[in-house]
Amino acid sequence: MRINKRWCFFWGLIFVMGCVAGEDGTESSSAQPNIVFILADDLGYSDIGAYGSEIDTPNLDRLAEHGIRFSQAYNHAVCYPTRAAFLTGAYPQQVDMMEGPENITGAFTVGDMLKKAGYRTLWAGKHHGTQSPLDMGFDRYYGLRDGCSNYFNPGDRRPGEEKPARKESMYPRKWIIEGELCAPFTPEDSDFYVTTAITDRVVQWLEEYRKEEKPFFLYLAHQAPHDPLQAWPEDIEKYLGTYMEGYAATRRARFEKQKKTGLLGDRYELSEATHRDWRSLSETEKLVEDSTMAVYAAMIDRLDREIGRVLDKIKAMGEEENTLILFASDNGGAHQVVTMKDSGPIGSISRWTSLGPDWANVANTPLRKSKVYSHEGGIRTPLIAYWPAGIEDGGRVVRTPVHVIDFLPTFAELAGIKIPESYEEAGADPKVYNNEPLVPVQGVSITPLLKGNELERGEPLFQQLRRGKALRADNWKIVSWRAENEDKGDWELYNMREDPTETNDLSKERPEVLGDLVEKYERWMEEVSK
Fold this sequence. Notes:
Blueprint: H1 5-17, E1 20-21, E2 27-28, E3 34-40, H2 58-66, E4 68-74, H3 79-88, H4 110-116, E5 120-125, E6 140-144, E7 175-177, E8 180-182, H5 194-208, E9 216-221, H6 233-237, H7 247-260, H8 283-316, E10 323-329, H9 356-363, H10 376-379, E11 380-386, E12 396-398, E13 402-403, H11 407-415, H12 423-426, H13 447-450, E14 461-465, E15 468-473, E16 476-481, E17 491-495, H14 511-528
Parallel strand pairs: 3-9, 3-10, 4-12, 4-13, 5-6, 5-9
Antiparallel strand pairs: 1-2, 4-11, 6-7, 7-8, 10-11, 14-15, 15-16, 16-17
Helix pairs in contact: 5-8, 7-9
């Protein structure tokens, strides 16, 4: 990998004097930064230290302390639509990624675009789609092509170990190991753990390309802390007993920390609790709940440590100054419970444990609802940006809403290129994307926010997933959830500036606002459904 001390100085000079104009009149620079996008899986809004958690996450907290915390960063409520939106800069409805994790159609990917722009493109971790990343503009890929797998052994039972807990109806899970499709993938190493194995491969790649005279783009898509909740015993031991005061106490402590550290403004209220009363649980139930949350915390702790290894490697290469590092989650904490007929201690290879609705209510503090819902707890998650050479006034909290569709146009601007308007211009093979007409990129570049400026977004942000739907336009939001036995759900209306946790429904008081936003939503749905 190239050593870029001169570029570090140059970038600092550029940001002091202002950016230079590209050929299309947009702001760009001749020094392309490295870009690292780290995506956690099912991580709730308050699950890392910088967003209120008691969990030990010093590496992510350092990025937040010297970078930017975004308080209103949006996704698409579950894994595969969010990931498709990130890759394409388009809504998942537009690229055939709403009904299930299938093929992206009618769009190029960020991998195609950045590879054409001169980047080394690397992807490690979860995919949750059916195409090979090696056909989507990425030079290297290692990871799980499916949605989730056993952390200690994604494949067949190895001699001398318990049978790995797994969803039998979805077995074997597909992995791609440097271009080879493996189903099942049974690691030979008995010390295998998914979060660590992904990191090992990334560190190996960075060392391999460290002398290369081109920037790198790394998409590091972790599976953690998605269920099954599994962690090493020594990591779990660190947190056992931490949660014996219960759901409400943990949730309240997180909320107070969020307020104290400036993440949340004065208008935030803690949304109504949906967890059980801790006092109603038996002592045995309390121990089970404490163990469950301890494993979840251990997974996040380990995730942070492995991210730290990648950060240390980038720093050792002399690349930290001019590397934009982004950390996000694909949706809110998950309330769904997977029921298995398995055995073994919570957190072990033979046990599938889910976080469940009570702790998910804590994970998403102070927001309403959880994964799958279009309420804030399902679609709003942490986003940290760190870039010593490019971010001004580190330590800021940005309260402007941003969305996962914004990353592709942001990366285009940072790479100094226009957003491609054809497959050819993007360096993509149209056959990979079903030869469908190219969908225009829907997001906007968020680079103004990195520099402390305002962001202009002409269109509302839209959500639609299963029985949930929403629209965010400036400070107004409409949201609906349809019960399973209903044909349609009622629209709710919230003033997100005054009521950011959706506690005061104004649909009856402001019918003219509601009607206007519903009309906009219906026009959008009609357009993306064509």
